[in-house]
Design brief:
The chain is 16% helix and 41% strand. β12 and β13 form a beta hairpin. The chain folds into 2 domains: 93 residues, Jelly Rolls (Sandwich), CATH 2.60.120; 91 residues, Translation Initiation Factor IF3 (2-Layer Sandwich). The protein starts with 5 loop residues before the first helix and ends with a helix. The strands form 3 sheets. The protein has a 5-stranded antiparallel β-sheet. Strands 3-8-5-6 form a 4-stranded antiparallel β-sheet, with no helix packed on it. The chain is α+β, with helices and mostly antiparallel strands. It is built from 4 helices and 13 strands.
């Protein structure tokens, strides 16, 4: 166990040198004190990265997307990209990076499952997830009706992100971002006519 007072570690020198607080194989904790107009890069490399803005104002760019962070804001990102951080004034950031290489994400392959079983199977798997957990859905077509059905019956509870988007194989990461509300309907209890309205394709 180790304790840090981040406010005591905020100091600005000539260079924006990171202060490494924790450096473990699957976890790192780094403090960046960046001078105004200074630029630093943060690789993600398959990790989950969380950036806490302690003070100041920065712009963070990933691909063509940019986000402004002010003191008190938190940004979360993952993948295999490079984050470019530019300070709009003197700024301090705490960057947490975690990788889970030893834990392979569970897959649910629907390609060999009977069509009438696919949606109930996905709902059952999703409802077992804790907040923050995910699985990878594998299919032979883009399951747009399934996505709409999940959004309608589990509103604001999931993140749907394409890993591979066809043409022959679709791989989609489905992550739980909020808990069950307790009033959800099980797909198996839907009336038959409603099941027909929500096809599997």
């Amino acid at each position: 166990m180790q304790k840090y007072n981040l406010l005591e570690l905020v100091e600005y020198g000539e260079e924006s040198l990171p202060k490494v607080l924790v450096n473990q194989p699957a976890y790192s904790l780094v403090l960046f004190n960046i001078r105004s107009e200074g630029i630093v890069s943060q690789p993600i490399d398959g990790a989950t990265v969380t950036i806490y803005a302690i003070s100041g104002h920065v712009t963070i760019c990933r691909d063509e997307t940019s986000v402004d962070l002010y003191a008190g804001d938190v940004l979360w990102s993952e993948g295999d990209e490079l984050l470019r951080i530019k300070a709009r004034g003197d700024a301090s950031l705490l960057v947490v990076s975690a990788t889970y290489e030893s834990r392979r994400e569970e897959e649910l392959d629907l390609r060999t499952v009977e069509r009438f079983q696919r949606h109930p199977m996905v709902f059952q798997r999703f409802d077992r997830l804790n907040v923050g957990e995910s699985f990878v859905l594998v299919n032979d077509h883009d399951p747009i009706p399934l996505h709409r059905q999940l959004d309608a019956m589990r509103p604001h509870q999931l993140n749907w992100e394409y890993i591979i988007r066809g043409p022959g194989v679709f791989r989609i990461q489905i992550r739980r971002i909020a808990p069950l509300s307790g009033s959800e309907t099980s797909l198996s209890t839907l009336p038959q006519n409603l099941s027909n309205i929500l096809p599997t394709r």
